[in-house]
Specification:
The chain folds into three domains: about 10-115, DNA Primase, Chain A, CATH 3.90.580.10; about 125-240, DNA primase, catalytic core, N-terminal domain (DNA primase DNAg catalytic core, N-terminal domain); about 260-415, Dna Topoisomerase Vi A Subunit, Chain: A, domain 2 (3-Layer(aba) Sandwich), CATH 3.40.1360. It is about 40% helix and about 20% strand. The protein has helices at about 10-15, 65-70, 85-100, 100-115, 125-140, 145-155, 160-165, 170-185, 275-285, 300-305, 330-355, 380-385, 390-410, 415; strands spanning about 25-30, 30-35, 45-50, 55, 65, 165-170, 195, 205, 210-220, 225-235, 240, 260, 265-275, 290-295, 315, 355-360, 365, 370. The strands form five sheets. A five-stranded antiparallel beta sheet has the order 1-2-3-4-5. Helix 1 packs parallel to helix 2 (about 65-70) and helix 9 (about 275-285) packs parallel to helix 12. The N and C termini lie far apart (about 50 Å).
């Protein structure tokens, strides 16, 4: 018996989680956003995709398919879904519930009510609270020379490195003392990602690896919402890690934050991958256009929170060029296919969900062969190499303003005139 005769929506409904802050869930395309049954988030960070039959929470990281969701939300301790027959037994119970086993559904509703009253769940602090705490933290940190040199090499000026608050990670010996100072200054640590209570009951700051902090901005309000660490030594091939205290006492996850840096031409958007990369692009383009950096090509849920602020826009897709790489092995081809799919998904969000006019940016590209030369992967590296940012800016602003100016004049009727 397979699971292809029911969907993730069926299972979410069985478990009674299909609501957002006590109201109907929000749906965009195939994604439905509702309260998270795992971390209790009520801001729509949790979503399930009926087409893909999967779920994911951008706050706590919970993810899987419909059967896993049913098993992970099991609070009937007389039911055992472990072992080789665990999934098979779960599928049987799902079908039983779908076919009208009201006793099973009533039991889970009661268990869900108990779960929601747990007092050990920590909600993420408000944006303004996180900003105040993080800015106070940055004042107590310094930027090591090797980190400063790395940022200069990547194209940032000394002035912008200072103004954008880049700092090196503190040592483990420093963190407890820093937390004590923050508390004495009236800063809130509870609900701020990265902070937790250690085995001594003290507030502490969890740093997963050494490197420098890359701030994530909500430029509309000027808030610092979180940090990624640019690691000195990659961990399991990852160059970046979030500042997060998920899973630790009184800790909280950072979620997958989007970097939002508004430009002077606010309705001309460049969407790229990477927190640091988007910051560099915004600076090299002199703050003339808005730059949005998603934390990874497949992390787009928090992107919608930024796009919701726009009624119209001209958006440039600027994911890395290795999506055009020529694969020589099946594994490389799988990576290229995944990158291309992620790019198409982004274009679908921009065009189909928000109605933006979109245009893919390509660089280091041979117009004759229609192939990537394979030398420059990121737009940030291209702008450093290319140097003539005025020419590049003129191109993207002229193209974007032509459309946005028409939108201002014609409004929603523009699509009928094209």
């Amino acid at each position: 018996m397979g699971s292809d005769r029911f969907t993730i929506a069926d299972v979410v409904e069985i478990r009674g989680y299909n609501s957002l802050r006590g109201h109907s869930p929000k749906t965009n395309g195939n994604e439905t956003y509702c309260d998270c049954p795992f971390c209790g988030d009520t801001r729509g960070k949790f979503s399930y995709n009926n087409k893909k039959n999967t779920y994911h929470c951008w706050k706590c990281g919970a993810s899987g398919n419909s059967v896993k969701f049913f098993i992970e939300t099991n609070y009937d301790y007389s039911k055992d879904y472990s072992g080789i027959d665990g999934s098979k037994n779960a599928i049987k119970d799902i079908f039983a519930a779908i076919n009208g086993d009201s006793i099973l559904q009533d039991f889970h509703r009661k268990e869900i009510a108990i779960l929601k009253t747990k007092d050990d769940d920590v909600a993420i602090a408000a944006d303004s609270v996180r900003d105040k705490t993080y800015r106070a933290l940055l004042k107590k940190l310094r930027l090591k020379k090797e980190h400063n040199d790395n940022l200069l090499k990547r194209g940032l000026s000394q002035e912008i490195i200072y103004s954008l608050k880049f700092r090196s990670t503190p040592s483990y010996k420093e963190t407890a003392g820093i937390c004590k100072q923050l508390i004495s200054e009236g800063c809130t640590l509870e609900g701020v990602p990265g902070f937790y209570k250690d085995k001594y009951g003290r507030w502490n700051l969890y740093i997963a690896g050494e490197g420098y902090l890359c701030p994530v901005f909500d430029g509309e309000h000027g808030y610092i919402l979180g940090f990624q660490i640019r690691l000195d030594n990659p961990i399991e091939k990852s160059k970046y890690l979030w500042i997060s205290s998920a899973g630790k006492p009184s800790g909280v996850s950072s979620g997958a934050l989007t970097n939002y840096l508004p430009g002077k031409n606010d309705n001309i958007l460049i969407v790229t991958e990477g927190i640091l990369k988007s910051t560099i692009i915004w600076y090299l383009l002199k703050g003339e256009v808005t730059v949005i950096g998603v934390p990874g090509v497949n992390a787009k849920s928090s992107l919608r929170g930024v796009l919701d602020r726009y009624s119209y826009a001209y958006a440039y897709e600027a994911f890395d060029m290795d999506k055009y790489a020529v694969a020589t092995t099946p594994k490389e081809q799988e990576k290229v296919d995944n990158l291309m799919k992620a790019t198409k998904d982004l274009m679908s969000i921009l065009e189909d969900e928000y109605g933006f006019k979109t245009h893919p940016l390509r660089w280091d590209f041979d117009p004759k062969t229609e192939k990537w030369n394979g030398n420059i992967k990121g737009l940030d590296d291209f702008l450093v190499e290319y140097k003539d940012t005025e020419k590049f800016l003129n191109y993207i602003i002229t193209k974007g303003k032509k459309y946005t100016d028409m939108m201002k004049f014609f409004g929603s009727d523009l699509s009928k005139k094209e």
